[in-house]
Specification:
about 170 residues, mainly alpha, about 50% helix
């Protein structure tokens, strides 16, 4: 059984638009075929379906709506505010509780997901400090090497004569 997914209005319009030439088109030997005997192209559904996207509001937006709702004095103003902002009454009630508890004071929203393990944070800090210590030890050993070379350098150059080649060092092992 074949199911037709076209709306009823389209089905009835297609059924009711029978052309006179369509019934005679099969008997004609010559001439152009009427419009209704041509094969119909499948109808293209051009309807755009909106994908629902969950709204996320910042704490500043929530605080602004709560304060605007608190400023409403006349009957119906809060309803108009909620329609204008696209907010349900349950969300406004939750935001009011959060505002009273001081949770909407920050600029950013509360971070969702698992909380960071403090022991893991300490291990990361320890590893970072260990790497830094090892790097500093290497730099210190290089500095000691440079200092030792600088200690030996004046002895090597003090024995050289201004008349001799600078490549030849008297009594100094390079």
């Amino acid at each position: 059984m074949k199911i037709n997914n076209q709306p009823k209005a389209r089905m009835h319009a297609a059924r009711d638009s029978v052309d006179i030439g369509a019934s005679q088109g099969a008997r004609r030997a010559t001439g152009d075929a009427p419009v209704s005997t041509r094969p119909l192209l499948p109808s293209i559904n051009s309807e755009v379906v909106a994908i629902a996207k969950r709204r996320s509001r910042t704490n500043a937006d929530k605080r602004r709506v709560v304060l605007a709702a608190a400023a409403c004095t006349k009957s119906g103003e809060i309803g108009a505010l909620m329609r204008r902002e696209g907010v349900y009454s349950s969300a406004l009630a939750t935001w009011r509780r959060q505002y009273a508890a001081g949770e909407l004071s920050g600029v950013t929203s509360k971070k969702h997901g698992p909380k960071a393990d403090p022991a893991r944070a300490e291990l990361k800090q320890l590893a970072l400090l260990t790497r830094e210590r090892d790097k500093l030890r290497v730099q210190l050993s290089n500095a000691h090497l440079v200092i030792e070379v600088q200690k030996k350098l004046p002895r090597c150059w003090s024995n050289s004569s201004p008349y001799r080649s600078s490549r030849v060092l008297d009594g100094c092992d390079a």
